[in-house]
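Q: Predict the assembly, please.
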Amino acid sequence: MSTPTPTRSPAGLPAPAGPGPVAQAAQSVLSARMPTLAVAALLVLTVGASVLLQPNFFSPYSLSASFATFLPVATIAAAQTIIVLGGGIDLSIGTIVTLASAVSVVLMDGDNSRLPLALAAGLATGAACGLVNGLVVAGLRLQPIVATFATSSVFGGLALLVLPQPGGTASPALTQVFGMVLALYVPIPAVLLLALWLAWRLLRRHRFGQYLYAVGGNADAAYTSAVPVSAVRVFSYVAGGTVAALAGIALLADSGAGDPTLGTELTLGSIAALVIGGTRLRGGSGGVGGALVGAIVLSLIQSLVFFAGVPTDAREFVYGCIIIAAIALAGLLTARSGAGRPASARGRGTTA
Amino acid sequence: MNVSTAEPAAPGTPEPPAQAPAPARQSRLRRLLRDPVVISGSVAVLLWAVAALVSPAFASWDQFLTLMTVASFLGVIAIGQTLVIIAGGEGIDLSVGATATLAAIVASRFMDGSDDGFLAAVLVALGACCVVGVVNAVGVLVFRVPPLVMTLGMIAVVAGFIRLYTGGRPEGSAAPLLRTLVKGDTVAGIPGVLWLWLGLAVLVVWLLRRSPFGWRLYAVGANPTTAYLSGVNTAAVKFAAYVLSSLFAGVGGLLLLGYAENVYTSLGTDYMLNSVAAAVIGGTALVGGVGGYLGTVIGAILLTVLDSLLRIMQIGGGEWGDAPRQIIYGVVLIIVLTAYGRQKRLRQ
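A: Predicted assembly structure:
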């Protein structure tokens, strides 16, 4: 699955004698799929626990409410994943979300007729922010972590300019459609989540999807193979920014108002979600599907801590510990599936 | 106080090329002009001059001391950040802000506004920070979690612990001794905290340049495989880096406590990414194995000067609130980074 060549085998890592070729192949497939399996197991676990603790978890109302909270976080995680797969990282993604939602909510101003304009403006804002990030990272060749920290300050400031206080009113049509439940059991946010995943599958099949993995896996090799590396990087940030804007709109539709101060929290959540979903932070390995599930798992854990009757003051701590455990589990599986120790020396060209 | 600013610039720049004889003068000059420490130092001086022009009061000695005091918090917290980044392997410690807050909160409850048990309070607070560092290190080294993610996750844990420990309402206040250290006028007209920073800076620079630990740290950061094959215990070196990072974050948190006198739960939040920015502006590359603490000192001063300049120019405040200041801060950061913080070209 992953790119590093297995020829540089450190002593003792693959058992020299032992499993035949078939067993070895099965093992390699298993190890490549391990993160996916792990996150699926986590999902089953958390859903099971939710059903136990909330008997009416599968009621239409509860499902609708759950998916309404899943959608924004999952969308942000998807946006971050696209960028991370391409070998970057975006610490400004939370502020892009808040800026896009601030622009939309100010433009729509509780009026249905202005909805299309406001949505378009929100998406354009996200794409523009992504373009800025992409140009700074790929054009100026700054290190993504610091560069996007700097731009997050800019975007956060702009969000505060557009919408100084939490507030504004989303158009009623948006919130109503968002709260609808189709065919008794299928809430609209769930449909949108599925659409997001399908869109990712399309992208993955497209040449750009291939380029994305190539650049994230090894930028130098991609460059020598005539992949337009800089263009792909810029595009990954633009795509990430646009998807982040979608998350902003989902957030708006869920809460009915804008909030310019959420930024950092959302960024941190998106990174945790994608790691739990089995995407390698170094780029080139993983996928949006895992990140979506990772975000859902995180969201479920948060509500589980609430419903498990943990005292108010201890909730955050318990939640934090569970997240660390989940991340450690994911880290263990992702690291083992790639190469071991020598891989860290390889990271020089592609990371930071 | 000039000691602290001048000292880094002087011995910091001609590091290895100092031995080069006359013929290399041209390239030496050029290298000097490309040195991150020199660039950042000039930008900091430039910003400071602009600030002094805008508001003459800015040039006063008192104002200067206040500025350096504020910079010292970032500078001390960024010590650990620098060590972790140099240790490489995508090393970064985003939990420093939360750890600093933790130290301040634990210490303030133990001190509770009196000097009795000052030492115990400091030890307990720093001990708590070391636990955070150990957990970070275990996550990174044993569970192979990427440092960015591990330390990010630790923010949630530490913040959650603070909530649990304080019940949402932090109590207590700084001991008078700590307040005197940070705000009082102790030695030669210079606040004790600056002497402390100077001492720590000398210690860290010595540690990085002259001690076996420093050499190993650079070796591990530059190429963990060769370091490992050369007999360096890479895990131990990284472990030490993460624990030291949390420890210094805790020291920074204690100093912040002395400055703010009372604690609040977002005391250290701003230092999370600013400490990274300070290190990177000072020429410490995020790939590891490159950089040093003198650059970080300059970076911390630069960021502090920039922030106070924007405050003095009264950008922000009024009807727009904080927003314009944030925007300009980000733009200037990008410009400064563009001067040298760039990565290699793909085509070579």
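Residues 1-21 of chain B have pLDDT under 50 and may be disordered. The two ends of chain B are 45 Å apart (CA to CA).
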